[in-house]
């Protein structure tokens, strides 16, 4: 189980980092926007027309395990290195990830960088708040392709992720699954089976032993993460035990990382948190 936390960064602190950046310690913003298949918004087109200065676009639909039939499975180290090099990101860079929704897909991108050993990666909390303070943004389609880097992932944190086989072993054993917090970030109706999954052909429902914690419950106004006191009350109310290891899941492994971020924020990661990669899909 991984105890590595996702680190939140306010817009004000982000501006402070930018002012202290150097050539050998750059600050690179990464737009990790992604939308559900039933959402008509186009994340790349939005990036081209509105972005933070010196941003790079991280395509969750492209940076994945291309040999897997499932969406958003973690890529191999080689695939990740190749993708990050094309973005011109260096090992020495501080990477600040955001998404246009606020906190939706960006936590998954931060988690991915962290899994591959990039230490200086932060989650901007968040882009709508950044805009609210009228900090500078770019609103044109005139951006140059960055020069490729020699980025090299340091390692792969296998303790941060749980595989299908490992997950099935846990949830199939009643005694074993009671030793974990298993949290599902999908909507409650999808969890209970009352609403369909957004991907055709997938049944709704939930894994044995899982608890429903829709990701929207840990976010407040403008999709900012709630304060620690409120978050603690919410997770305690559904019976989360901070003395147990935790598995977070969702539809494909994207919004599960929102729950991980919330648990990290309140220190409920002492026994480690794993993301179920691929999740309900």
Query: Main sheet, how many strands, which sense, barrel?
Result: 5 strands, parallel
Q: Roughly how many Å apart are the termini?
A: 22 Å
Unreliably modeled segments: none
Structural class: alpha/beta
How many domains, in number, for the residues? 2
Q: Look at the structure and give the CATH class of the largest domain.
A: Alpha Beta
Number of strands: 10
Q: Please state the average pLDDT score.
A: 93
Largest beta sheet: strand ordering: 1-5-4-2-3
For this structure, what is the CATH homologous superfamily of the largest domain?
Answer: Rhodanese-like domain
Task: Report the oligomer.
Answer: single chain
Estimated helix fraction: 25-40%
Shape: globular
Order of helices and strands: EHEHEHEHEHEHHEHEHEHE
Specify the number of helices: 10
Q: What CATH architecture of the largest domain would you give?
A: 3-Layer(aba) Sandwich
Do you know the CATH topology of the largest domain?
Oxidized Rhodanese, domain 1
Backbone CA Rg: 18 Å
The percentage of residues in β strands lies in 5-15%
Summarize the structure.
This protein is α/β, with parallel strands linked by helices and 281 residues long.
What does this structure look like?
By secondary structure, this protein is of the alpha/beta class. It folds into two domains: 8-155, Rhodanese-like domain (Oxidized Rhodanese, domain 1); 159-276, Rhodanese-like domain (Oxidized Rhodanese, domain 1), CATH 3.40.250.10. 28% of the residues lie in helices and 12% in strands. It is built from ten helices and ten strands. The strands form two sheets. A five-stranded parallel β-sheet has the order 1-5-4-2-3. β9, α10 (256-265) and β10 (273-276) form a beta-alpha-beta unit. The longest helix is centred in the N-terminal third of the chain and has 10 residues, at 77-86. It is globular. The two termini are 22 Å apart. The mean pLDDT is 93.
